[in-house]
Amino acid sequence: MPEGHTVHRLARTFDTLFAGQVLRVSSPQGRFADGAGVLDGRRLVASEAWGKQLFLGFAPAERPADLRSDTLWLRTHLGLYGAWTFAGAPDAPEVAHAIGAPRRRIGERDSAPASAPPSSDVSGPRVPPGTSTSDTWEVPQPRGQVRVRLLGAHAVADLTGPTACEVITADEKEAVEARLGPDPIRDDGDPDAFVAALGRSRVTIGQQLMDQAVVAGVGNIYRAEVLFRAGVDPLRPGRDVPAATVRAIWDDLVVLMRDGADHGAIVTTRPADRGAGHVADVADGGAEPVPAADRGRGRTRQNTDGSPGAVPSDQAFYVYHRDGLPCRVCGSPVLVKELAGRNLFWCGVCQT
C-alpha cells in the first residue's frame, strides 16, 4: 500500500497539471458515472493530501469559489491496488507516469515535482469533450478498468483500483479529517496530539504507528524504520514509551516523510550505516556483495525513483524486508513476526 509521502506527491502533481482548469470528468469503467457527472465541467481549485487520503476540490466553473460552500471534493484512497496514471501533451509539465500501487515498468520512475504552483490561480481553458488538448497530442484511450478520468488542457489522469472513490461535501471532508491523526508532512501536523494519543494506550507502539487515527500516512516501511532509528522495541506498550522519545519519533517522521515526498524515495539509512549487509563497491574497498537473497528485497516502486545519485533500494532500509539478514549496526539477525495482520521487522539487540 502506498505510504503518505506518495499521496502528497499526487496532490502536487494535480496542482502542477490541472490547477485552475475546468476539467472533463468521466468514468470509462462506468462504476463512478454518477459522481463523474456531478464533477464534470467544474474547475479544480484545490489538491490536498492528509495521510493516505487525497482530496481534489472542484468549484463551479463560472464564478469564484467559496471553498466552504461551493466546492465539492473528490476523495480517493488508493489502498493496496490503486494508482493514478498520467499522460500529457508535449507542452505539459514533466511528471511521473504513474503514482500508486507498485507495478513492473521499464524506463519509468516516480518523478513528480517537489513543489507546485498554488491552486489559487483559477485561469485556464476549458477543453471540449472528445478533442485533442494540443496540436500534436491526441488524448490516449483509457487502459484497464479506469474508475475516473480527468481531462485538462494538456494532460489526462486515470484512476484505477482505488479502495475509496467518492464525491463529498466540505462538511463530509471535515468529518473524514477529524477521524485522522496528525500528518507529519502537513504544516498543521500537531506533534502534541500524536504524543498524547500514543501515550494513552497500552497497545504496542508498533501497532499504534499503523493506526491512521494516531498518526496519518505512516505505513509498514516508515513504521519499521523509524522505530529502529529510535531504538524502540515495537512490542512495547505505547504508554510505557517516554513522551520525549515519542516526540523524537515524530520529529524523525517529519524529516523522513517530507524527504520521501520531495524525492519519491523512502531512504532511512544514515550514510555511515550503508557499508554492511548490502551490495558494496568492492573495487573501492567496500565489503563483499550481499547474498542474492537480499538483493531483491524492498524493491517496491515507491522506495526509490532510480534517479542518478539515488540510494539503491537494497541500501535504503535498516530492517524492512531484511528478516534473517544481519543488522546494519550490530550484526544480529533482523527479526520478523506478524502483528495485526502485517509483518513487523526489527532488531532484537538495537531495539530493546
Task: Assign a percent range to the helix content.
Answer: 10-25%
**What oligomeric state is this?**
single chain
- Strands in their spatial order, largest beta sheet: 1-7-8-5-6
Strand content: 15-25%
Number of strands: 11
Average of the residue pLDDT scores: 83
What name goes with the CATH superfamily of the largest domain? MutM-like, N-terminal
Give the biggest beta sheet: 5 strands, antiparallel
**CATH topology annotation of the largest domain:** N-terminal domain of MutM-like DNA repair proteins
The number of distinct helices, counting runs of at least 4 residues, comes to: 8
What is the CATH architecture descriptor of the largest domain?
Alpha-Beta Barrel
Q: Could you say which overall geometry the principal axes of the C-alpha atoms support? A: globular
Helix and strand layout, with pairings?
Elements: H1 4-18, E1 24-26, H2 33-39, E2 43-50, E3 53-59, E4 72-77, E5 83-88, E6 98-100, E7 146-151, E8 155-160, E9 164-168, H3 170-178, H4 191-199, H5 205-208, H6 220-230, H7 243-263, H8 292-295, E10 334-339, E11 342-347
Antiparallel strand pairs: 1-7, 2-3, 3-4, 4-9, 5-6, 5-8, 7-8, 10-11
Q: Can you characterise this structure?
A:
The protein has 8 helices and 11 strands. With 352 residues, the protein is of the alpha+beta class. The chain folds into 2 domains: 4-178, Alpha-Beta Barrel (N-terminal domain of MutM-like DNA repair proteins); 191-347, Orthogonal Bundle (Helicase, Ruva Protein, domain 3), CATH 1.10.8. The strands form 3 sheets. Strands 1-7-8-5-6 form a 5-stranded antiparallel beta sheet. Strands 2-3-4-9 form a 4-stranded antiparallel beta sheet, sandwiched between helices. The protein has a two-stranded antiparallel ribbon with strand order 10-11. Strand 2 (43-50) and strand 3 (53-59) form a beta hairpin. Helix 1 runs parallel beside helix 7 (243-263), helix 4 (191-199) crosses helix 7 and helix 6 crosses helix 7 (243-263). Mean pLDDT is 83; it is low at 103-132 and 276-308.
